[in-house]
Amino acid sequence: MPESRPTRRPLKSRTTPWARWLAQWLARHRVSPNAISLASLVFAAIGAMAMLAVPTVSDGARSTLLLLAAVGIQLRLLCNLLDGLVAVEGGLGSKSGELFNELPDRLADPLLIVPAGYATGLAWGPELAWIAAVLALLTAYIRALGGAAGLPQDFQGPMAKPHRMATMTAGLILAALAVPAGLDGPVLLVTLALVALGTLITAMRRTRALRHAMEAR
After folding, report:
1. Is the peptide bond before 115 cis (omega within 30 degrees of 0)?
2. Are 203 and 146 a contacting pair, CB within 8 Å?
3. Separation CA 129–CA 107 (nearest Å)
4. For a disulfide at 176, which of 6, 61, 66, 137, Cβ 3.0-4.6 Å?
5. How far is CA 25 from the centre of its chain?
6. pTM for the whole thing?
């Protein structure tokens, strides 16, 4: 039976002084966790629009848009970190908090993965991106399924959400640097392949762990 896991994703960044200070500042100003969760979706949409615009602009602008998309991913993750801190440590959680915590995440993942396929400008880029996005949703579904079955939610990787977004961020930055050489498309294609493969392995591992946990009850 897998080891017990908390409902909240274990993140070391929750204990950092800067994160706690920022969460306390938001709580003092009565910024609701639900609003922070929705803001994560806004940042994801900005990243998506930046990537979709990549094939239509010149080289210099392509690099800027790719970097903007990377920033959008990190701001999305920052919101994901702060909404839980403000809700739990700040005491501003609501009865609908779980809805606002989960639904924007499920929308943000494909928003930040699928457009990268179109940004490649290469054959099979969009298809590969859609595969990676569907697998990302599948891993989240398996985790939630375990919780619905009364089991600890499984956040294991190797390509859980933080790992997916870290891979996407690194890929976008490398692609921006590769624009002068005309290699930004291949870099993004390799990034999406890594995300898809890693997410498939993650889904298989979580499914196996969930089956074993169910059989052991």
Report:
1. no
2. no
3. 15
4. 66
5. 24
6. 0.90
Q: For residue 90, give the amino acid letter.
A: G
Structure-token match 């922070």, residue found: 36
Query: Cα–Cα distance between 163 and 58 in angstroms, integer?
Result: 30
Residue-range domains of the chain with CATH: 12-216 (1.20.120.1760)
Tokens at 207, concatenated: 């499914």
Q: Are 37 and 83 in contact (CB under 8 A)?
A: yes
Contact 115, 48 (CB under 8 A): yes
Residues contacting 117, CB < 8 A, separation 6+: 125, 126, 127, 128, 129, 130, 188, 192
Contact 194, 136 (CB under 8 A): no
